[in-house]
Design brief:
Helix 3 packs antiparallel against helix 4. With about 270 residues, this protein is α+β, with helices and mostly antiparallel strands. It is about 25% helix and about 30% strand. It has 2 domains: about 100 residues, no CATH class; about 140 residues, no CATH class. The longest helix is centred in the last third of the chain and has 17 residues. Strand 7 and strand 8 form a beta hairpin. The strands form 3 sheets. It has a 5-stranded antiparallel sheet with strand order 1-2-3-4-5, with no helix packed on it. About 30% of the residues are buried.
């Protein structure tokens, strides 16, 4: 991940275990890993889980300025870093939180301090992670990830398809903008087209979903039926019953970004 372009620094400390605790070598011991990061006039602090039993208290992420807390909310397993997403030389703040569990959930909180502290986007990525990269060469990073809206749709999690999802910085906030990057959609579609499933009905449903959904995003819905017919003709009846639902799930891609955090926030 990117470093700290504005010279911000981080440090962490772990309280040493006492001798008596060390005697219980077979006992799992819970630790909070307290960490801070300096971000311009702000001090960012959070706690990461160590190893051991689940604690009674939930870790808290906070942003303070001049000794006053201006943002504070509970997290589960958080990390924070700075990165310059808009190329102006002043770093933004990115908090990544993982809720734990077999298949969920990653949440990314991206803040700017220009002209005051506010979120550029809070990205609810579900089972998938997010990265920031300049896709179109304009000097501004897109937020790029995978959309897992079809997880468990009519198949197991293992069989569930995913689609690319892209967010662009527009009007001072990140908005879902995947259709503006057809090359990324096409590359993902080509991977599915290169490997149609053979005999497993569950995976054939998943494949039909993926091909149809990708081609809808590309504006090629009418061609999708013939494409699916060539490799999985037995899925056409299933698709005819599910195409409306698939498009509805595609329509929810924009809801993966919001602009407020959890409860307990202050104001700058």
């Amino acid at each position: 991940m990117p470093g700290n372009p504005d010279g911000s620094s981080s440090n962490s400390g772990i309280e040493p275990l006492g001798a008596s605790a060390l005697c219980f070598s077979l006992m799992l011991i819970y630790l909070f890993l307290a960490t801070t990061l300096n971000w311009g006039p702000y001090t960012v602090s959070w706690e990461e889980y160590g190893v051991g039993e689940i604690p009674k208290e939930t870790p808290v992420f906070s942003i303070s300025k001049g000794g006053r807390t201006v943002r504070s909310f509970e997290v589960w397993n958080a990390t924070a870093e700075t990165l310059d997403v808009d190329g102006d030389g002043a770093a933004e703040l990115l908090l990544t939180d993982y809720s734990g569990g077999a298949h969920c959930c990653f949440t990314y909180y991206l803040y700017t301090r220009k002209p005051s502290l506010r979120p550029l986007g809070v990205f609810d990525m579900g089972n998938d992670m997010l990265s920031f990269q300049d896709l179109d060469g304009d000097g501004i990073a897109e937020a790029v990830g995978s959309y897992d809206g079809f997880a468990y749709y009519d198949y197991s999690y293992a069989a569930s398809p995913s689609l690319p999802i892209v967010f662009s910085l527009k009007g001072g906030k990140y908005v879902e903008n995947t259709k503006a990057f057809p090359d990324i959609i096409q590359k993902s579609l080509d991977e599915y087209l290169a490997a149609p499933p053979e005999n497993d009905e569950e995976y054939r449903k998943s494949w039909a979903t993926a091909v149809y959904a990708h081609m809808v995003l590309l504006g090629q819905e009418s061609s999708a039926w013939e494409t699916i017919k060539r490799s999985c003709p037995d899925m056409l009846d299933w698709l005819s019953r599910n195409s409306s639902s698939i498009k509805k799930i595609l329509g929810a891609m924009g809801a993966r970004v919001r602009y407020s955090e959890a409860k307990g926030n202050g104001d700058d």
